[in-house]
Specification:
Layout (H helix, E strand, L loop, with lengths): L3 E4 L12 H12 L8 E5 H7 L3 E3 L7 H10 L3 H9 L1 E8 L2 E6 L4 E3 L23 E3 L5 H16 L4 E10 L2 E12 L5 E2 L15 E2 L1 H13 L8 E5 L24
Parallel strand pairs: 2-8
Antiparallel strand pairs: 1-12, 2-12, 3-7, 4-5, 5-6, 8-9, 10-11
């Protein structure tokens, strides 16, 4: 197996309303790549959120009493905490500098995935607000976003494709962030290997592979986390057959979650 991950060149700073599929097609042409059956496009969450207008100005947010109380415990801006609460189903852990929540999409993450880094003010508001007041929320429905991009790319190329939207998350048992899938279209999120033989013909009993997260981590390594400017990765050689899937495959049921 050979897995090839290629960062697409020349992706501009994405703004609300930009057509990401068109930007991808232009970048593929610059890279000399033609889409083939089985190819996958991996997109950083930020470009999807920006295109969908998920920028929020904290100066326009009013903190609720609940947010103000939680902000005191976490030592965070109450307006940011208000957005965290709006984007979350449940607050799980709080300490100074950190709020861990169950996001409304079902996964566990810090600050509901809301981020300041690599965020610039909306183009029509740069002169009347502070740059640090702008934050970026996760896409409203990342699976639907991935599916829409996939459909446009498949119509343009005639190839059967997968699209993955990823974000950087921490983990309960290790230091450091890793890339994880938050939106999936056309590729398996989870690959069930139970019953498959190992080298000695022992049948695997519990092995399920988080294939989408494995690919997300690899793509995140290629994207980088700072000023690299390569938020979209072309993938060729994914070792599992493409199929319909969704993020819910990767969400561990609450009754099986030993870290809560």
């Amino acid at each position: 197996m050979t897995l090839i991950l290629t960062p697409l060149p020349g992706i501009p700073l994405v703004r609300q309303g930009d057509n990401l599929a068109q930007l991808i097609l232009l970048a593929l042409d610059r890279a000399g790549l033609a889409l083939q059956d089985g190819d996958i496009l991996v997109l950083a969450q930020k470009v999807v959120s920006k295109a969908e207008g998920r920028l929020v100005n904290l100066e326009q947010v009013t903190a609720s009493p609940a947010a103000i109380g939680l902000a005191e415990r976490a030592q965070k801006d109450p307006r940011l905490v208000e957005l965290i609460l709006q984007e979350s189903q449940q607050v799980l852990r709080v300490r100074p500098g950190t709020i861990i929540v169950e996001h409304r999409l079902g996964f566990i993450c810090a600050s509901a995935g809301i981020d300041h880094s690599n965020v610039e003010p909306a183009s029509d508001s740069r002169e009347d607000s502070h740059p640090e007041a702008w934050v970026l929320l996760l896409p409203e429905d990342p699976d639907a976003s991935a599916q829409a991009i996939r459909q446009q790319l498949e119509e343009a190329s005639g190839a059967r494709l997968g699209v993955l939207i990823i974000d950087s998350h921490g983990r309960a048992w290790r230091l450091g962030t890793v890339g994880v899938a938050i939106g999936i279209a056309g590729l398996p999120a989870l690959v069930d290997l139970r019953g498959a033989p190992d080298l000695f013909d022992f049948r695997l009993q519990i092995t399920q592979v988080g294939a989408a997260d494995e690919l997300a981590a690899a793509a995140s390594l290629v994207m980088g986390q700072a000023a690299e400017g390569t938020p979209i990765i072309h993938v060729r050689g994914f070792p599992y057959p493409l199929r319909e899937a969704a993020l819910v495959e990767l969400i561990r049921p609450k009754e099986q979650d030993l870290f809560r």
